[in-house]
Amino acid sequence: MISELSQEEFHKIDHLLHGDRLNLEIEAVVAGFNPGWIFVDDIQNPQTALVWSKGIEGFYLLGQTDSQTFNAEINSFVDENIAPRAKALGLNDFEFSATSSAWDQAILKIFESRDMIITTQLVFEKTANSTLTDFTLNHPDYRLHHVNSALLTDSSLDHQLLESAILEWWDSIESFMENGIGAAIYYKNQAICTCVTSFMNQTTMESHIQTAPLHRKKGLATYAVQAFMKTALEQGFNLYWDCMESNLGSRALANKMNYHLQFTYPLYEFAFPTGDEDE
Fold this sequence. Notes:
This protein has nine helices and twelve strands. The model has no long low-confidence stretch (mean pLDDT 93). Helices cover 30% and strands 30% of the residues. The protein has helices at 24-30, 68-88, 103-110, 149-152, 160-167, 173-179, 220-234, 248-256, 275-278, and strands at 3-4, 36-40, 48-53, 58-63, 93-98, 117-126, 142-146, 182-187, 190-200, 204-211, 238-244, 260-271. A twelve-stranded mixed sheet has the order 1-2-3-4-5-12-6-11-10-9-8-7, sandwiched between helices. It is an alpha+beta fold.
């Protein structure tokens, strides 16, 4: 029987955190840095698990690929338990991947009745002892700030974009400040470009970037990412970058910042049943 773990029980799947496609996003949820849900085949002795990440709004399969209980129940569990919760959050599709290439054939068999779309994700990394390319922001109208409590409590500045960027990945600003790092570029006292920790474990950080529409195509993300990277590397963190194969802009920026491709993985997606199908 598939069951949900409480957050205090997330550690029960620590032994499943391995594989040739182990995503940092999964580790971040299990470690309690990022919010999510975890469902398992056996609540006392999990051998297969499904992890949901709030920030990514996607799911991850890990553990044994041949769990009879899990594989037999997962389709109905998605439709009857996950779909209503996901739809309440505005999600219409079940998007997922897996931690190992061993899952590839299992996924096609388990979900053979689904009309699945399969795309490719790329994972880049940069180690803590890497060199950093130097880019200098020389524009009088833009100011680069490191994210700290002094910045966020400065009432003369508009932090709306920065705060929304943080809360996209974290439960609270306070939780982010305790664990994450970030950089933000302000234009006329308004945050218009941000790069903040989205996922992390004890050794590695991933960042995500947001730029206000009117300020895109100006290369600002380069400076925000560089400032983020500098702080993370100084603190001894490795760096992680995950993007769609089709996102040429993100791929180009990762290469520009000297990240190195580590692995690729398939991303699966199918629509939750509609109301008519439920009836």
